[in-house]
Amino acid sequence: MVKKIIKKKPNLKKFGFLYKIESMNDDENIKNENIKPEEDNQDNFEDVTFEASTEDGEALPTKDVVKKLREELKACRKEKEEYLTGWQRAKADYINLQKELSSAHVNSSILTKEKVVEKLLPALDSFEMAFANLEHWEKLDKEWQEGMKSIHKQFLAGLFSSGIETIEDSGVPFDPGIHQSINIVETKDEKLNHTVEKVLQVGYKIGERVIRPAKVTIFEFKK
């Protein structure tokens, strides 16, 4: 028995997508060939020069070009001056603001210290009055005297460390800014005229700011 061999035709539908892909690749290659690199496009402008022209595209005369350049330069200089002036003004305002803030901080600190001292003044005055009353002071036990003096020194040390100073010197020229005259003592020594004879109540100050002037008696020269 003879077998008949039948050849089947290949099924091209199975390979259809391969033809499509190959066709797409060919189209991409054609497009890429038509696109030039950016470098090639840039090279096209290397030899191009731009000249000032009128609205109609006509080249401006040399004198007009120079005039235009001068106007642009003048405008640039004006703009530069405006920027410089604005920057200098802003810098000055910033410096002034820093000074104001610093001054406000200092004033706030001084006011705080001043209030603290004002609250301590009665206690400090009590110490001064106790020391001034020699009749009663000498009657106290020596240990009590030393203890009170030690406490008084601790008070003053705390004030001094905060920048607070006492006004208690005698024999110095009378200064109405830090002294308050309570009484006048006549003197025949002309050198003592208008000097502090005695401090009746200690004064206090912070720098040049007087918290309380010292109450004093002053000498007055009489011929």
Structure commentary:
The structure is a single chain. The longest helix has 71 residues. The protein has 223 residues and is α+β, with helices and mostly antiparallel strands. Strand 4 and strand 5 form a beta hairpin. The strands form 2 sheets. Strands 1-4-5 form a 3-stranded antiparallel β-sheet. The protein has a 3-stranded mixed β-sheet with strand order 2-6-3, with no helix packed on it. It has a domain of 59 residues: Head domain of nucleotide exchange factor GrpE (Nucleotide Exchange Factor Grpe, Chain A, domain 2). Helix content is 54%, strand content 16%.
List keywords for this structure.
223 residues, three-stranded mixed β-sheet, 16% strand, three-stranded antiparallel β-sheet, Nucleotide Exchange Factor Grpe, Chain A, domain 2, alpha+beta, 5 helices, elongated
Structure described in brief:
The chain has helices at 16-34, 38-43, 62-132, 134-137, 142-161; strands at 164-167, 179-187, 196-201, 203-206, 209-212, 214-221.
Supply the CATH superfamily name of the domain at 165-223.
Answer: Head domain of nucleotide exchange factor GrpE
Largest sheet: 3 strands, antiparallel
Structural class: alpha+beta
Mean pLDDT across every amino acid position: 77
Share of helix among residues?
40-55%
User: What would CATH call the class of the domain at 165-223?
Assistant: Mainly Beta
Strand line-up of the largest beta sheet: 1-4-5
Number of strands: 6
Describe the global form: elongated
Unreliable parts: 1-8, 11-15
